[in-house]
Amino acid sequence: MANSLITNFEKNVFNDKVMKERLSSDVYEKLKKTIENREKLDLSIAGEVAIAIKGWAMERGATHYAHWFQPMTGLTAEKHEAFLSVDKTGHMIIEFSATELIQGEPDASSFPSGGLRQTFEARGYTAWDCTSPVFIKESNAGLTLCIPTIFCSYTGEALDRKTPLLRSINAINKETIRALKELFNIEATKIIPSVGPEQEYFLIDKNKFSRRKDLIFTGRTLFGAPSPKGQEVEAHYFGAIRENVLAFMKEVNIELWKLGIFAKTQHNEAAPSQYELAPIYGNVNVVADHNQLTMETLKRVARHHDMECLLHEKPFRGVNGSGKHNNWSLITDSGLNLFSPGKTPHENTLFLFFVTAVVKAVDENALLLRCASSGPGNDQRLGGHEAPPGIISIYLGDQIYDIVQQIINTGDAKTSKCGDVLNIGIDTIPLFRKDATDRNRTSPFAFTGNKFEFRMVGSSVSIAYTNTFLNGIVADSIREMTDEVVKNKKSIRDVIKENLKAHSRVIFNGNNYTEEWRKEAEKRKLPIASSFVESIKALIEPHTIELMKRNDIYSKVELESCAEIFYDNYSKTINIEAKTMIEMASKQYIPSIIKYMNNLAETMNNMKIASDKVDISVVEQSLIDVSKLLSEAKQALENLKKKLIEAEGIKECVKKAMFYRNEIVPIMEALRKPIDELELLVDSNLWPVPSYGSMLFK
Ligand code: ADP
Ligand code: MG
Q1: Which residues are within 5 Å of ligand 2 (an ion), measured at CB?
Q2: Per-residue pLDDT tens for 263-319?
Q3: Contact 506, 362 (CB under 8 A)
Q4: Tell me, what's the pLDDT at 420?
Q5: How confident is the model at residue 610 (pLDDT cuts 50, 70, 90)?
Q6: How far apart are alpha carbons 36 and 17 in whole angstroms?
Q7: Of 213, 249, 311, 454, which one's alpha carbon is 20 to 30 angstroms from that of 584?
Q8: Per-residue confidence at 5, pLDDT binned at 50, 70, 90?
Q9: Ligand 1: residues whose CB is within 6 Å?
């Protein structure tokens, strides 16, 4: 039997092999130069490339093409066009021109632009990004050729997540190459910011999903009493994967392999019905596209298996939420990982220099990172069970932490702790060396061997966005530190020492979940943003605006538009959640509770009639308890309705978002509380929606 991995891998990608086969060698070389060396695209080759792509796609069965882009919704967008045209005599001809490949003009007016549209023209352009490969999207409904593009306004402002990412790659490329050359005498031609995103998700039964309006409209449960069993016994994590889930994963893998996505790892996650998929890391530009395709594929394939895939950061209260651990490193074109500590990291000045640059960048831009990793959904997750808290700190591991301490305390590091041999005491088991560093699962930003793992990132967040900021702030930090050596004539070791001293407050090796850490963080004056909405302001602080401008990543208006979109999106998200709660409470919960109360009242009356010796107090007490909670719920419900009308009247986007955060969210809680308590009292046959237990345990 053919091996599905071998037969499918990159089947739907216009990859290097296909390009070589179908393009003349001259055109192939020119295109390759742009892709690999980031050289300017020679537009004269576009005609031949378009013909080759069309031929390949049509042979595969595609009838349509689409410019595929990532608007500021954080999702992807595509508008399909048939490979179709009319000739002068009115006959159908097959066509896909150079212009159609290179440029498109979707109507930009219905995508969020955060004010950019008022200031500028409504036109939006998509432009081919040949550094991410063209691919075919295949589903039971047909095949579509997708051309990865950027999306910008008439005056060149980014209207998407991709343009700033590409700019940030240029920035970090430039600064890192300079530092390597001027400080370490290393000639690199290209730096690849490399990312491996671990994607967490939940799978639940489709029928149960379709009976929960909250899941349908908001992606998370807005009500729900905890099930008797949660994740306390830790039976699910890395457990044997159930057969139906394995069948789902098998199909997901095949679909991802076809797209050239290096889907590698899969396992059960900590919460019941929670899973993870991780690809092999690669160039962040391509990986960001792949992650979008992965999320889309997970959702699409789940439906083939009568399941629904939830990508929300916190679908269920009381059990773990989902993140997207963003493993990030800088690798040169010759394969040198700048975060590789080597055997004696204390002597590895290059390594210490780049690690220090990250420490400095994270400390100076903590709130920005909080914003770049989140959305309204991540608020439910951060600080919860196992999730990193809303405070950014860096974990360096014992070995590097020890070196940093030596440098800070004595001015230099003389030794490196090394991992011992792990002896289990069984002769047949091989001896091996332990890593010099254990893992710290509680840190939002952890150094894990030869990469940084940014764990705060939410499961549904666009990593194009997260990595734009990560690349940007580190690029800036590298430039400043290089300047200190080159312009201010300091030694590299001194620059490392000074910066570690200045930014040591952001380093924390302990348990991030504790209350003590929160207090300690306050003492260290680290920014604590308990909600995403409080972190949005970081985007438009002068420090950020200048940094992003200096590095040609975002202009001031672009950042302002990002912030406006976030405030607006936050308000809209909470508004939808609140309205969904109102609908569920009014039409589902309250009528069912009243029915139950009526049953109790009837029972009580019937008991009374049957005999005056029957003790009706239990039934009566139940009725009183239920009635009390119902009144509480009803009051919160009316309150919520009133507040929503008030919110509608607020026009200014920051005020509005803060109103949702400070006034609406607490009332949503006040409504949820009595309903969840009632779920434990009311006859389960009358309860109108599936319970946590029935959704999470099958
Ligand atoms: P764990 O859950 O133990 O952290 P996983 O195997 O689930 O590990 O995921 C680790 C991720 O980190 C993978 O996507 C992997 O390819 C990626 N990764 C490994 N090395 C690097 C690196 N140098 N740069 C970026 N990502 C990396
Ligand atoms: Mg993992």
Answers
A1: 198
A2: 999 999 888 999 999 999 999 999 999 999 999 999 999 999 999 999 999 999 999
A3: yes
A4: 66
A5: very high
A6: 15
A7: 311
A8: confident
A9: 194-196, 198, 265, 278-281, 327-329, 337, 450-451
Q: Reply yes or no on whether the pLDDT at 114 is more than 90.
A: no
- For residue 274, the CA-to-ligand 2 centroid distance in Å is 12
Helix (H) or strand (E) holding 136: strand 135-139
Neighbours of 612 (CB within 10 A): 8
CATH for 2-159, among 3.40.50.1010, 3.50.50.60, 3.10.20.70, 3.40.50.2300?
A: 3.10.20.70
Which one of 3.40.50.720, 3.40.50.1000, 1.20.120.1560, 3.20.20.70 gives the CATH number of domain 571-696?
A: 1.20.120.1560
- For 641, residues 6+ apart whose C-beta sits below 8 A from its C-beta are 582
449 CA distance to ligand 2 centroid (A)? 14
Where does residue 518 rank: exposed (0-12), middle (13-18), buried (19+ CB within 10 A)? middle
d(CA 503, CA 507): 8
Q: In the prediction, which pLDDT does 117 show?
A: 55
| pLDDT score for 431 | 67
Minimal CA–CA distance to 141: which of 202, 213, 76, 63?
63
Average pLDDT over residues 421-439: 67
What average pLDDT does this structure show over 670-692?
97
DSSP string, 36-60: HH-PPP-GGGHHHHHHHHHHHHHHH
Residue 152 tokens read as 């910008």
pLDDT at 120: 47
What DSSP designation does 671 have?
H
Indicate if the pLDDT at residue 433 is higher than 90. no
What confidence score (pLDDT) does residue 115 get? Answer: 67
Give residue 281 CA to ligand 1 midpoint distance, Å: 6
Distance 277 CA to ligand 2 centre (A): 8
| Closest ligand relative to 275 C-alpha | 2
Report whether 94 contacts 84 (CB < 8 A): yes
State the CATH class of domain 167-554.
alpha beta
**Residue of the CA atom closest to atom 1 of ligand 1:** 198
- Nearest CA, atom 17, ligand 1: 196
Neighbour-count burial of 607, counting CB atoms closer than 10 A to its CB (0-12 exposed, 13-18 middle, 19+ buried): middle
Distance CA 156, CA 135 (A): 26
Give the mean model confidence (pLDDT) for residues 477-498. Answer: 97
Extents of the domains making up the chain = 2-159, 167-554, 571-696
Quote the CA–CA distance of 96 and 52 in Å, as a whole number. 10
Q: Provide the pLDDT for residue 49.
A: 96
pTM of the model as a whole? 0.95
CA separation for the pair 509, 402 (Å, rounded):
11
* Residue showing tokens 């004056």: 525
Residue 337 CA: nearest ligand 1 atom is: 23
pLDDT of residue 121: 55
Distance 278 CA to ligand 1 centre (A): 8
| Predicted local confidence at residue 73, as pLDDT | 84
